Amino acid sequence: SQQGEEDPQALSIQEGENATMNCSYKTSINNLQWYRQNSGRGLVHLILIRSNEREKHSGRLRVTLDTSKKSSSLLITASRAADTASYFCATEHTGGFKTIFGAGTRLFVKA
Amino acid sequence: GAVVSQHPSRVICKSGTSVKIECRSLDFQATTMFWYRQFPKKSLMLMATSNEGSKATYEQGVEKDKFLINHASLTLSTLTVTSAHPEDSSFYICSASGRGGTEAFFGQGTRLTVV
Asked: Which helix (H) or strand (E) holds A14?
């Protein structure tokens, strides 16, 4: 399969709680990116982490990357109802700059 | 970040007709462009990779005669869905990366509905 794996597939939490999504991939990467997509809309780029980085922060977002396990996690702290969306990880693979998307996690934040 | 414009954002066409979707890089030269397809509630599937001035490389299972990709300039790539059928209805998204760049920038997507 071209895709990486993401878990959970769906996540429902209360406003104020933290949301953690995980992503695993199969081959060597240049970087890994996380995107957000509201229903039926385009992609919003959230954060990019390079293969030589282990952790990155942006506002309420924290991304980790473990290249030995070929996995990444996205943590959204103090979630808000407006964070409700689908979140995808995307890996850019070495030797061609192809970007492959994970299956995505649908996050629902209840007000 | 760099801007990629995709047009149209929505299109409805009749079965059997062809539809062209444009992807433009507005403020950088896109040496490589990627086309993705997304089914409802699913992830994005890479269809093909195109490098300026050369033929596109299609992913396994993607019909190249059905989905014609042209990348004739450093700022424009087009995807033409030929002889469209209702099962071609989908969300199509392009992305573009520049020379030596390692980040691809995405267009806003095109929702195609074939009736």
From this structure: strand A10-14
